[in-house]
Amino acid sequence: MSTVRAGAAHRIGEAWDARRRRPLLGDDGRLLVVAADHPARGALGVRQDAMAMASRSDFLDRLATAVSRPGVDGVLGTADVLDDLLLLGALEGKVVIGSMNRGGLQGAVFELDDRFTGYTADEIAARGLEGGKMLTRIALGDPGTAGTLEASARAITDLAARGLMAMVEPFWSVLEDGRVRNLLDPDSTIRSIHVASGLGASSAHTWLKLPVVDDLPRVMDATTLPTLLLGGDPQGHPDDSYAAWARALEIPAVRGLVVGRALLYPPGGDVAAAVDIAADLVHGARR
Prior knowledge:
Layout: H1 2-7, H2 10-18, E1 31-36, H3 56-68, E2 74-77, H4 79-87, E3 95-99, H5 121-126, E4 131-138, H6 144-161, E5 165-176, E6 179-183, H7 186-197, E7 206-210, H8 216-220, E8 227-230, H9 238-248, E9 254-259, H10 261-264, H11 271-283
Parallel strand pairs: 1-2, 1-9, 2-3, 3-4, 4-5, 5-7, 7-8, 8-9
Antiparallel strand pairs: 5-6
Protein backbone atom coordinates (compact mmCIF):
# COMPACT_ATOMS: atom_id res chain seq x y z
CA MET A 1 0.00 0.00 0.00
CA SER A 2 2.76 2.43 0.92
CA THR A 3 4.60 1.58 -2.32
CA VAL A 4 1.58 2.57 -4.40
CA ARG A 5 1.10 5.78 -2.44
CA ALA A 6 4.77 6.74 -2.79
CA GLY A 7 5.38 5.83 -6.42
CA ALA A 8 2.04 5.49 -8.18
CA ALA A 9 -0.43 7.73 -6.37
CA HIS A 10 -2.28 8.32 -9.65
CA ARG A 11 -3.66 4.80 -9.33
CA ILE A 12 -5.93 5.95 -6.50
CA GLY A 13 -7.76 8.45 -8.69
CA GLU A 14 -7.92 5.97 -11.55
CA ALA A 15 -9.38 3.33 -9.25
CA TRP A 16 -12.12 5.69 -8.06
CA ASP A 17 -13.01 6.48 -11.65
CA ALA A 18 -13.20 2.78 -12.52
CA ARG A 19 -15.01 1.61 -9.38
CA ARG A 20 -18.17 -0.39 -10.00
CA ARG A 21 -21.06 1.36 -8.26
CA ARG A 22 -24.52 0.25 -7.15
CA PRO A 23 -27.80 1.92 -6.21
CA LEU A 24 -27.98 3.32 -2.70
CA LEU A 25 -30.73 0.89 -1.71
CA GLY A 26 -31.23 -2.72 -2.70
CA ASP A 27 -34.53 -4.50 -3.27
CA ASP A 28 -35.49 -4.57 0.41
CA GLY A 29 -34.79 -0.85 0.95
CA ARG A 30 -32.41 -1.50 3.85
CA LEU A 31 -28.76 -0.77 4.51
CA LEU A 32 -25.98 -2.25 6.62
CA VAL A 33 -22.96 0.05 6.59
CA VAL A 34 -19.68 -0.55 8.41
CA ALA A 35 -18.39 2.62 10.13
CA ALA A 36 -14.65 3.23 9.94
CA ASP A 37 -14.14 6.91 10.72
CA HIS A 38 -13.44 6.84 14.46
CA PRO A 39 -9.61 6.90 14.20
CA ALA A 40 -9.60 10.28 12.45
CA ARG A 41 -10.94 11.90 15.65
CA GLY A 42 -8.26 10.20 17.73
CA ALA A 43 -10.89 7.81 19.11
CA LEU A 44 -8.95 4.54 19.00
CA GLY A 45 -10.40 2.76 22.03
CA VAL A 46 -12.70 -0.25 22.18
CA ARG A 47 -13.92 -1.39 25.60
CA GLN A 48 -10.90 -1.41 27.92
CA ASP A 49 -8.26 -1.22 25.17
CA ALA A 50 -7.47 2.46 24.60
CA MET A 51 -5.34 1.68 21.51
CA ALA A 52 -7.42 -1.09 19.93
CA MET A 53 -7.53 0.61 16.51
CA ALA A 54 -3.91 1.81 16.51
CA SER A 55 -2.65 -0.74 13.97
CA ARG A 56 -3.74 0.27 10.47
CA SER A 57 -2.90 -3.14 8.99
CA ASP A 58 -5.06 -4.92 11.57
CA PHE A 59 -7.82 -2.33 11.14
CA LEU A 60 -7.83 -2.83 7.37
CA ASP A 61 -7.85 -6.62 7.71
CA ARG A 62 -10.92 -6.39 9.93
CA LEU A 63 -12.60 -3.91 7.60
CA ALA A 64 -11.92 -5.97 4.49
CA THR A 65 -13.39 -9.03 6.19
CA ALA A 66 -16.47 -7.12 7.32
CA VAL A 67 -17.17 -5.45 3.97
CA SER A 68 -16.76 -8.75 2.10
CA ARG A 69 -19.54 -10.51 4.02
CA PRO A 70 -22.91 -11.12 2.32
CA GLY A 71 -25.48 -8.53 3.32
CA VAL A 72 -22.98 -5.73 3.99
CA ASP A 73 -23.99 -2.86 1.73
CA GLY A 74 -21.10 -0.51 2.23
CA VAL A 75 -18.68 1.42 4.38
CA LEU A 76 -18.37 4.87 5.95
CA GLY A 77 -14.91 6.35 6.35
CA THR A 78 -12.36 9.10 5.86
CA ALA A 79 -10.32 9.40 2.67
CA ASP A 80 -7.25 7.64 4.04
CA VAL A 81 -9.21 4.52 4.99
CA LEU A 82 -11.41 4.50 1.91
CA ASP A 83 -8.42 4.93 -0.43
CA ASP A 84 -6.77 1.91 1.23
CA LEU A 85 -9.92 -0.19 0.90
CA LEU A 86 -10.23 0.91 -2.73
CA LEU A 87 -6.69 -0.28 -3.50
CA LEU A 88 -7.55 -3.59 -1.84
CA GLY A 89 -10.53 -3.97 -4.19
CA ALA A 90 -12.97 -3.98 -1.27
CA LEU A 91 -15.26 -1.19 -2.50
CA GLU A 92 -16.48 -2.72 -5.77
CA GLY A 93 -20.28 -2.69 -5.89
CA LYS A 94 -20.51 -1.11 -2.43
CA VAL A 95 -22.18 2.00 -1.06
CA VAL A 96 -19.40 4.38 0.02
CA ILE A 97 -20.07 7.29 2.39
CA GLY A 98 -17.38 9.89 3.01
CA SER A 99 -16.90 11.26 6.53
CA MET A 100 -16.86 15.06 6.34
CA ASN A 101 -16.10 16.55 9.77
CA ARG A 102 -13.48 15.00 12.03
CA GLY A 103 -12.04 18.17 13.54
CA GLY A 104 -13.68 17.81 16.96
CA LEU A 105 -10.97 15.57 18.36
CA GLN A 106 -11.92 13.33 21.25
CA GLY A 107 -11.01 14.98 24.55
CA ALA A 108 -9.87 18.30 23.01
CA VAL A 109 -10.86 21.65 24.50
CA PHE A 110 -12.33 22.37 21.03
CA GLU A 111 -14.11 19.01 20.73
CA LEU A 112 -17.52 20.58 20.12
CA ASP A 113 -16.13 22.75 17.33
CA ASP A 114 -16.66 20.01 14.76
CA ARG A 115 -14.70 21.49 11.88
CA PHE A 116 -15.12 19.97 8.42
CA THR A 117 -11.64 18.55 7.88
CA GLY A 118 -12.53 15.55 5.70
CA TYR A 119 -14.48 15.08 2.50
CA THR A 120 -16.18 17.99 0.75
CA ALA A 121 -19.36 17.68 -1.31
CA ASP A 122 -17.35 18.43 -4.47
CA GLU A 123 -14.88 15.62 -3.76
CA ILE A 124 -17.64 13.18 -2.82
CA ALA A 125 -19.27 13.82 -6.18
CA ALA A 126 -15.99 13.73 -8.10
CA ARG A 127 -14.94 10.39 -6.61
CA GLY A 128 -18.33 8.81 -7.19
CA LEU A 129 -19.19 8.29 -3.52
CA GLU A 130 -22.84 7.83 -2.61
CA GLY A 131 -22.98 10.46 0.11
CA GLY A 132 -21.37 12.26 3.02
CA LYS A 133 -21.76 11.96 6.77
CA MET A 134 -21.49 14.69 9.37
CA LEU A 135 -21.37 14.54 13.17
CA THR A 136 -23.61 17.33 14.50
CA ARG A 137 -23.41 17.69 18.26
CA ILE A 138 -25.64 20.37 19.74
CA ALA A 139 -24.48 21.84 23.05
CA LEU A 140 -26.36 24.93 24.19
CA GLY A 141 -23.55 25.88 26.54
CA ASP A 142 -20.76 25.82 23.96
CA PRO A 143 -20.33 28.45 21.23
CA GLY A 144 -18.69 25.91 18.91
CA THR A 145 -22.14 24.52 18.20
CA ALA A 146 -23.07 27.54 16.09
CA GLY A 147 -20.27 26.95 13.61
CA THR A 148 -21.00 23.24 13.47
CA LEU A 149 -24.66 23.85 12.67
CA GLU A 150 -23.79 26.34 9.96
CA ALA A 151 -21.22 24.03 8.36
CA SER A 152 -23.56 21.04 8.53
CA ALA A 153 -26.34 23.05 6.90
CA ARG A 154 -24.00 24.10 4.09
CA ALA A 155 -22.86 20.49 3.54
CA ILE A 156 -26.45 19.23 3.43
CA THR A 157 -27.34 21.88 0.87
CA ASP A 158 -24.28 21.11 -1.26
CA LEU A 159 -24.89 17.35 -1.20
CA ALA A 160 -28.59 17.75 -2.01
CA ALA A 161 -27.72 19.92 -5.02
CA ARG A 162 -25.74 16.95 -6.34
CA GLY A 163 -28.42 14.38 -5.52
CA LEU A 164 -26.25 12.75 -2.85
CA MET A 165 -27.13 11.42 0.59
CA ALA A 166 -26.40 13.65 3.58
CA MET A 167 -26.09 11.40 6.61
CA VAL A 168 -26.51 13.60 9.69
CA GLU A 169 -25.55 12.21 13.11
CA PRO A 170 -27.05 14.57 15.73
CA PHE A 171 -26.59 14.47 19.49
CA TRP A 172 -27.86 16.75 22.23
CA SER A 173 -24.66 17.20 24.22
CA VAL A 174 -23.33 18.80 27.39
CA LEU A 175 -19.85 19.75 28.56
CA GLU A 176 -19.07 18.39 32.04
CA ASP A 177 -15.70 18.81 33.75
CA GLY A 178 -14.10 19.54 30.40
CA ARG A 179 -15.50 16.45 28.69
CA VAL A 180 -18.35 16.07 26.20
CA ARG A 181 -21.25 13.83 27.12
CA ASN A 182 -24.02 12.99 24.68
CA LEU A 183 -27.45 12.85 26.29
CA LEU A 184 -29.06 9.58 25.25
CA ASP A 185 -32.48 9.94 26.83
CA PRO A 186 -35.51 10.01 24.49
CA ASP A 187 -36.38 13.69 24.92
CA SER A 188 -32.83 14.87 24.22
CA THR A 189 -32.64 12.65 21.16
CA ILE A 190 -35.96 14.03 19.92
CA ARG A 191 -34.66 17.60 20.31
CA SER A 192 -31.53 16.74 18.34
CA ILE A 193 -33.67 15.21 15.58
CA HIS A 194 -35.75 18.35 15.16
CA VAL A 195 -32.73 20.63 14.96
CA ALA A 196 -30.88 18.34 12.54
CA SER A 197 -33.92 17.85 10.33
CA GLY A 198 -34.21 21.59 9.73
CA LEU A 199 -30.64 22.08 8.52
CA GLY A 200 -29.93 22.92 4.90
CA ALA A 201 -31.92 24.34 2.00
CA SER A 202 -33.31 20.93 1.03
CA SER A 203 -34.10 17.79 3.01
CA ALA A 204 -34.69 15.69 -0.12
CA HIS A 205 -31.53 13.62 0.40
CA THR A 206 -31.10 13.91 4.19
CA TRP A 207 -30.85 10.75 6.28
CA LEU A 208 -30.37 10.55 10.04
CA LYS A 209 -27.93 8.39 11.96
CA LEU A 210 -29.28 7.96 15.48
CA PRO A 211 -28.40 6.06 18.66
CA VAL A 212 -30.56 3.22 19.95
CA VAL A 213 -32.28 4.80 22.95
CA ASP A 214 -35.24 3.98 25.18
CA ASP A 215 -38.76 4.56 23.89
CA LEU A 216 -37.49 4.39 20.32
CA PRO A 217 -40.95 4.27 18.63
CA ARG A 218 -41.76 7.67 20.18
CA VAL A 219 -38.33 8.97 19.23
CA MET A 220 -38.75 7.87 15.62
CA ASP A 221 -42.14 9.59 15.47
CA ALA A 222 -40.17 12.85 15.60
CA THR A 223 -39.09 12.58 11.96
CA THR A 224 -40.08 11.47 8.47
CA LEU A 225 -36.44 11.26 7.37
CA PRO A 226 -35.04 7.79 6.66
CA THR A 227 -32.91 6.69 9.58
CA LEU A 228 -30.01 4.35 10.22
CA LEU A 229 -29.13 3.37 13.78
CA LEU A 230 -25.58 3.46 15.07
CA GLY A 231 -23.94 0.65 16.97
CA GLY A 232 -22.40 2.90 19.60
CA ASP A 233 -19.57 2.19 21.99
CA PRO A 234 -19.73 -1.59 22.60
CA GLN A 235 -20.42 -2.35 26.24
CA GLY A 236 -21.72 -5.48 27.93
CA HIS A 237 -22.51 -8.72 26.11
CA PRO A 238 -22.94 -8.56 22.31
CA ASP A 239 -26.22 -10.48 22.55
CA ASP A 240 -27.73 -7.48 24.34
CA SER A 241 -26.75 -5.23 21.43
CA TYR A 242 -28.13 -7.68 18.87
CA ALA A 243 -31.44 -7.87 20.73
CA ALA A 244 -31.70 -4.07 20.90
CA TRP A 245 -30.94 -3.78 17.18
CA ALA A 246 -33.55 -6.42 16.34
CA ARG A 247 -36.26 -4.56 18.26
CA ALA A 248 -35.29 -1.25 16.69
CA LEU A 249 -35.33 -2.65 13.16
CA GLU A 250 -39.01 -3.53 13.58
CA ILE A 251 -39.84 0.21 13.44
CA PRO A 252 -40.76 1.07 9.83
CA ALA A 253 -38.78 4.35 9.71
CA VAL A 254 -35.56 2.52 10.66
CA ARG A 255 -33.86 1.53 7.41
CA GLY A 256 -30.82 -0.27 8.80
CA LEU A 257 -27.61 0.01 10.81
CA VAL A 258 -24.28 1.85 10.70
CA VAL A 259 -21.97 -0.09 13.01
CA GLY A 260 -18.23 0.07 13.53
CA ARG A 261 -16.45 -1.05 16.68
CA ALA A 262 -19.11 -3.53 17.79
CA LEU A 263 -18.63 -5.52 14.57
CA LEU A 264 -14.95 -4.91 13.91
CA TYR A 265 -13.78 -5.71 17.46
CA PRO A 266 -16.20 -8.30 18.88
CA PRO A 267 -15.26 -10.31 21.96
CA GLY A 268 -13.36 -13.33 20.73
CA GLY A 269 -12.32 -11.54 17.54
CA ASP A 270 -14.59 -13.30 15.03
CA VAL A 271 -15.44 -10.36 12.79
CA ALA A 272 -17.21 -12.45 10.15
CA ALA A 273 -19.56 -14.05 12.67
CA ALA A 274 -20.49 -10.70 14.24
CA VAL A 275 -21.11 -9.12 10.84
CA ASP A 276 -23.22 -12.06 9.70
CA ILE A 277 -25.51 -11.64 12.71
CA ALA A 278 -25.98 -7.95 11.91
CA ALA A 279 -26.63 -8.73 8.24
CA ASP A 280 -29.31 -11.24 9.17
CA LEU A 281 -30.95 -8.68 11.44
CA VAL A 282 -30.98 -6.01 8.72
CA HIS A 283 -31.75 -8.07 5.64
CA GLY A 284 -33.19 -11.29 7.06
CA ALA A 285 -34.35 -13.86 4.55
CA ARG A 286 -33.62 -11.48 1.67
CA ARG A 287 -29.87 -11.67 2.29
